[in-house]
Specification:
Length: 271
């Protein structure tokens, strides 16, 4: 039996209403699917702090390894790692709570259809372009420590993004009818951005602010940053437009209109 909390019910009502299907009481499966978005509540918050502590320890080791010559954006990278991994881990655990109650889960959709061309393009640009820039910095400037330190961060980012994407794309869709399948697909498209390639380029802003970008590479890194963010914005817009409206289906009971407070409009009685 699927157990749904009041917070998950409220989240499901708001989410469905934004997509044209207001429901007074969403079906249990739809409500619990949408409720998995509440990654940083309850036990999810506890796991988040555990990941943050682990990231702080790993970040301290990284800083001691490369010292002042490395990229100064490393704290943002490790914070992003903690956010991504804790969010995905919490969703995975919540799905495990009710997956046995779904009689026949839908097999996962093909990975290229889930990711889409814009997301794939951003992956290639962020990681392929990042490695190329790190190599150019290493062989073309004296800032070799910076290049190696950033290459290490790119490698760690690839591991985190790959871990989340593989787990996300391999898991079956926990759905049993048209409505729950549409919800599961829309939520999977949202969950892609827990492993957003844009989060690999955004931390570089700190290097720009602290003037730690290697000489001669400010325009190159600036273009790399802008292109990575732009591709992700376009990809998110495409995913949003694809799942902005849900197909007809039984998402829950219809909301009961509020009758309001009755008002007595009769003229006042004379004393």
């Amino acid at each position: 039996m699927i157990m749904v909390t009041a917070a998950e019910q409220d989240e499901a009502r708001r989410w469905l209403a934004r997509r044209g299907h207001p429901a007074g009481r969403p079906t249990p499966l739809v409500a619990v699917l949408i409720g998995t978005r509440q990654a940083f509540r309850g036990r999810g918050m506890v796991r988040y702090f555990v990941y943050v502590l682990l990231a702080c320890g790993a970040g301290a080791g990284y800083a001691s390894l490369f010292g002042s010559g490395g990229t100064q954006s490393w704290p943002v990278y490790f914070f992003v790692f903690a956010m991504s991994l804790s969010s995905w881990d919490t969703v995975r655990l919540r799905e495990r709570d009710f997956q046995d109650d779904v009689a026949a889960p839908h097999p996962p959709d093909p990975w290229w259809r889930v990711l889409g061309g814009w997301y794939l393009a951003s992956l290639v640009l962020v990681f392929g372009g990042g490695v190329a820039l790190a190599g150019a910095i290493y062989f073309g400037t004296p800032a070799r420590t910076y290049a190696v330190s950033w290459l290490v961060l790119l490698t760690l980012s690839a591991v985190v993004v790959g871990w989340v994407l593989i787990g996300l794309l391999r898991r079956p869709l926990l759905a049993e009818d048209t409505a729950s399948l549409a919800v599961a697909r829309a939520l999977r498209a949202e969950a892609l951005y827990a492993a957003s390639p844009a989060m690999v380029v955004v931390p570089l802003v700190l290097d720009f602010l602290l003037h730690r970008v290697p000489p001669g590479f400010t325009p190159w890194l600036g273009a790399y940053f802008a292109a990575g963010v732009l591709l992700q914005i376009i990809g998110y817009a495409v995913h949003w437009s694809r799942h902005r409206t849900l197909p007809p289906g039984h998402y829950g009971t219809l909301p009961v209109p509020d009758p309001g407070t009755p008002v007595d409009w009769s003229p006042p009685k004379e004393a």
